[in-house]
Amino acid sequence: MTKSFASEIIQKYEPIENVKQAHQMSLEGFTRYMSSSDCLLFNNECEKVYQDMTHPLSDYFISSSHNTYLISDQLVGPSDIWGYISALLKGCRCLEIDCWDGSQNEPVVYHGYTLTSKLLFKTVIQAIRKYAFITSDYPLVISLENHCSPSQQEVMADNLQFILGDALLSDMLDDFPDKLPSPEALKFKILVRNKKKGTLTETRERRHSDKHGQIQEFEEYEESDQEEEEDQVQESESLDVVRDNPEKGTRSRSLVRLPRFRKRRVKVALALSDLVIYTKAEKFRNFQHSRQYQQFNESNSIGESEARKLSKLAVSDFILHTSKFITRIYPKATRADSSNFNPQEFWNVGCQMVALNFQTPGLPMDLQIGKFLDNGNCGYILKPQFLRDSETKFNPNEALQNSNPLTLTIRLISGIQLPPSYSSNKADALVIIEIFGVLNDQVKQQTRVIKGNAFSPRWNETFTFIIQVPELAMIRFVVESQNILAGNEFLGQYTLPVLCMSKGNNPKGYRRIPLFSKIGQSLEPASLFTYVWYVR
User: Fold this and answer.
1) Model-level pTM?
2) Mean pLDDT of 126-148
């Protein structure tokens, strides 16, 4: 620390004037400094948008929600506007709306074939318009799961145009006729994701024409085997694909599931179809089909079970696919309790829209919220170069060659006013530090237990982590109260990207880690006091 920097700290935080003039700091001044944002573990430079926002949309991780209208389970829970408001305030940039025919020609939003309550489609769109750009200026995607008849699809189109107005992107941008635009080019725009028939040029040619009553009908392939089990892929469902590698003269093999498809007829109202510009929903068949036929403005949705198999059996093809096309991953149908999967495994292969149930707290949502703290919580995180490069050799499942690892050392000194146990007014406190990232980076370490002291436990323990791919790594601090019989009790947590821990050019220093409850509320002043340093 330089003298000039120390002087700045004294001038900013020392409350006693004569102490300040003597270029000294009292205990009160030091306490104010240690409690300030300047001493937080999270780098305050990451609190603003600092990444290059001029890449195509497919180059970004995009904060995404699944079945956003639900605020409880998937079967009998209520649908509520608060689901959309809450997600938008958290920086979500892709919302999902399940649309069904309603009475009096008014489309409704609910989880079909269940007892969940219903919302009017137009009410949902009104709420989205009001809150769309409060947290982030960057484009919002409305992903429609559309079960409506063509006549009510026309009502949906009218609602979208009338309520969203100029915020709705209803025509391609002149500078982007054949490539995805950037978040910067789409600032304050709302994009519709839905089925679409025809090209963007055809859409522009009929922009001002009367589309009432015009219906587009086409055949779509859908997977006939909707098996959600996590069983290993059977030989009868797999294809051994052999690819020649001209550079190395070797042949690489990967197992790719051979899905069974059936055709079905799809009817889309032209008025709604023409509102889909850069986010056309296209059924995913296989990577070879996508390489040959998928267009730049087409995106895929893949269920978590299928995506998990692909990430293990065809990881190189998966990463190549996500380097070109927006890919959305959604929870499997058996998650009736609205539970979530670990999103890290799909970020590792470059999936842009990893959609979670935002209403369900826990580890997956801690990772989601922590990841998108970066880049000003704008909902867009630029993917690392090795996930954007079509020539990449990156494989998150294998040890990396010629990597540039980061060595992170954390001395966990003490806790400050930790929340007490619910079962008593004290806690037997311990801290778990866990790294999430590529397979070889995932590790967990924990402190010893401090008995009966939640107010000011002291550990003074040091932990070292060697992180091979810090660009994808997340770190999570969890405080628990030990309970041998009933299982440890959660007291608080904090999760953030590893690369958001640095403070400018200072790779080491004392840091305070704020704690948050299971539902994401601040537990201030509860925090951890640490000394952090790293080498790369």
Assistant:
1) 0.91
2) 98
